[in-house]
Amino acid sequence: AGFFAGYRKTILQPGEIIVSIRIPKPLPDFVRFYKVAKRKLDDISTVAACLALSLDSGGRVTKARFAYGGVAATPLRTYEAEQAVEGRRWSTSAARRAQEEISRALRPISDYRGSAEYRLALARSLVEKFAWETLEEAA
């Protein structure tokens, strides 16, 4: 969580390299990675998102993770959006609750890749896309 120190800056010291990363298992039931950029390859993201959910047998969210890149100097998790859906049945209305929290939590940057308003709209729309994909897959 404390690896990123700023835009294109990390806490690595000169001569240090990353030798491994740990990805906890089991992975959530639904995981999606989205990248929105002007070009598909070799481009910095306007917005990047990693969205993940685990559901119980009744379709209620037991764990949610919503993380974004490209909206600030460092990647961010939107804890408020995660909390807004945890314990609720996963649905388009739950996704809308997450979108409302994302609107309150994110304060995107503006630069030549996109305005703050555009980035916020993208971040919200990626939750909607995630909801449609995962609800279809869960059906």
UniProtKB/TrEMBL annotation:
<dbReference type="InterPro" id="IPR051312">
    <property type="entry name" value="Diverse_Substr_Oxidored"/>
</dbReference>
<keyword id="KW-0274">FAD</keyword>
<protein>
    <submittedName>
        <fullName>Xanthine dehydrogenase small subunit</fullName>
    </submittedName>
</protein>
<dbReference type="InterPro" id="IPR005107">
    <property type="entry name" value="CO_DH_flav_C"/>
</dbReference>
<dbReference type="Pfam" id="PF03450">
    <property type="entry name" value="CO_deh_flav_C"/>
</dbReference>
<dbReference type="GO" id="GO:0016491">
    <property type="term" value="F:oxidoreductase activity"/>
</dbReference>
<keyword id="KW-0285">Flavoprotein</keyword>
<feature type="domain" description="CO dehydrogenase flavoprotein C-terminal">
    <location>
        <begin position="32"/>
        <end position="134"/>
    </location>
</feature>
<keyword id="KW-0560">Oxidoreductase</keyword>
<dbReference type="InterPro" id="IPR036683">
    <property type="entry name" value="CO_DH_flav_C_dom_sf"/>
</dbReference>
